[in-house]
Amino acid sequence: MTLLEAHNQILALLGMPPINSLSAGNSIASKISASIDRARKRILRAAPYKFGVQTDLTANADSEIAVSQYLRVIYPEQLQSKLTELNGIVWDIENNQAYSETISDAIVVADIAFDQISSYAWQEYIALEAAAEMSMMLSDVDQNYAVIRQQAMAARKKAYNENPVSIKSAFGVNSALRGFHA
I need a surface site. Which of 8, 36, 120, 126 has the fewest CB within 10 A? Predict the structure, then answer.
């Protein structure tokens, strides 16, 4: 699904005519784009076992690591209460300083653009969540909202039930997704 197709799916659900392009002058397209972006980030953050890659991070006090390039970093269990992010760097809470050691087996959730998500089920779920948000924004009481939410929940179930192997390949993840289950 392209971003334009997602926009037109949302517009159809809202009873509006389709658009031909995502031009900067179209205010409804801008609002839908913002809604899709919020839904995409929220869904990606909430599903680390589907979108996370297990990796080693190098945190060095002299050269800040760009944890801000990820939507979420999940530290190994033994470090979860010790580390946090502070101004884009990994911060050692106990010693009140930048953490300067390698962090093995952290799970990082990448900020994947909508068009780069090759799983149609996940794109559909994101688009339907954005449509529900748009429905609430455009109307105080919208009967369509309940229908869209039901569709979003059905799409969510379908997306979460996808085979993890196909998700790994669908998102271009080369590292193994170990220890995480839906």
Answer: 120
